[in-house]
Amino acid sequence: MRSPAASPPDTAEGARQPACPAPVRLWLVSAFERARGNGVRIQEMLAAEMDLRPGYSTLTRWIREADLRTPPKRAGAYYFAPGQEMQHDTSPHRVILAGKPVTAQCASLILAYSRRLFVQYFARFTRFEAKQFLLEAVRFMAGSCPTCVIDNTSVIVVAGAGDEAVFAPEMVALARTLGFAFRAHPVNMPDRKGRIERPFSWIEGNFLAGRTFRDFADLNAQALAWCENVANAKPKRALGVAPNAAYGVEKLCLQPLPAVLPPVYQVVERVVDLQGFVSIETNRYSVPERWVGKALSVYLYATEVRVCRGEQLLAVHARLLGVRDAKQKLPGHHPTPQPRPRTPPREATLLQGHDPLLDAYVEALVRQAHGRGVRPLRRLLEFKRTYPQGPLLAAVAQALQFGLFDLGRLERMILQQVAGDFFNLDDGGDDA
Q1: Closest to 265 in 3D by CA, of 88, 120, 139, 127
Q2: Where does the record place the region Disordered (predicted)?
Q3: pLDDT at residue number 74
Q4: How far is CA 432 from CA 423, 426, 428, in A?
Q5: Cα 324 to the center of its chain, rounded Å
Q6: Based on CB atoms within 10 Å of each CB, which residue in 75, 85, 116, 226 is the most buried?
């Protein structure tokens, strides 16, 4: 009789966790490599190739038992004194802008001691946007820590990595002005900036979930409100208090900001095109049309575009963000040409006001004439000054009746009237 100690465990737990069959264990080795360690894909392959459908938790236990995954390493912990360090990083997020999904760059900065968080979004993230963000971040924190830990991205790092990293001179100059210095974490050690790495999934799952935004301005306004009312107001288990409460202690240890903060902008030279626009970042901004063909200086700020000619400010536009090939025109820059009112020629003024028949003929003559009708009006005025009024008006009445505006024929008609009035001789004559 076998002893009870030798009996296999007859527990519910043992029944729920069957051992991995030997053929499956051998198959898992190659399947794990083919599926690149993806458990869901291995589950699909197991059903297709071996007609087995174990539960996902059972499959992951079989993988662990086969020692196919490297066991996790012991994790350490970093401790920071108030005002000692801040961390900065970026991550691409999918957001809904104006009803359309857009990939936006989420930039964030956190104080390592109090975990006070600042988040903003950008259509892209170059050194220009990095300077904008860092300036707004230290304003939000009302100070800076002497060290800002970043990854080895080429936005700020121009060569090397880790302790050997070389930072862009313009970024070093900005950091020095704001009271801190950059430090890149060692390669393959992202946990060195774990304070800023972990909040990204929370931002996606809490802030972005279920929210839509009109544009980047609305997105960043809501992100700022979320930082103040949610992220920094919720108590942290590691802190025992909310970040805002811990920030009250850390704020006293931050590097003070200079009295005057440096403006962040880019300057480019642009020639105004034939339609009266300057192009920057694939978008077009209007300038007064008198500057067509001229070279102007365009100052690109975080939220606006300024167009200048030397020290003269020509236009200020709201910067177009997150769009391409858009066009923005300010009122008054490209007015629609208005036709000048046609003033009657001097000759028409001299002809009109004497008789309704002559007034009507002058108006009809101007309507059918080329241009303002100065030449025919001048000739008609000569008729008025040369011939008697009666024959002139009689000929004009006939010309109006038949729509005759040939002034040569009109003059012959006037002469016929004159001859009839002054030289009307009896056809038979008097006999001598």
Answers
A1: 127
A2: 327-346
A3: 63
A4: 21, 15, 12
A5: 7
A6: 116
Beta-sheet strands, E only, within 34-123: 85-97, 100-111, 117-122
Round to whole Å and give the CA distance between 355 and 337: 38
Q: What's the CA gap between 346 and 1, in Å, rounded?
A: 138
The per-residue DSSP string of 254-282 comes to: SBPPPSSPPP--EEEEEE--TTSEEEETT
Among 186, 178, 154, 148, which residue's Cα sits nearest to residue 168? 154
State how far the alpha carbon of 404 is from the alpha carbons of 322, 361, 370, 409, in Å: 67, 10, 16, 8
65 backbone dihedrals φ, ψ, rounded to 5°: -65, -30
Cα–Cα distance measured from residue 143 to residue 252, given in angstroms and rounded to the nearest whole number = 9
CATH of 85-253, one of 3.40.50.970, 3.40.50.1460, 3.30.420.10, 3.20.20.150: 3.30.420.10
Contact 193, 150 (CB under 8 A): yes
pTM of the model: 0.63
Are 103 and 90 contacting, i.e. CB atoms less than 8 angstroms apart?
Answer: no
CA 73 – CA 64 distance, rounded (Å): 15
User: So what's the pLDDT on residue 92?
Assistant: 95
Q: Where do the domains of the chain lie?
A: 15-65, 85-253, 266-328, 346-422
How do the residues of the chain divide into helix, strand and coil, expressed in percent and rounded to 5?
A: 40, 20, 40
Q: Are 106 and 91 in contact (CB under 8 A)?
A: yes
Dist CA 3 CA 227 (whole Å) = 65
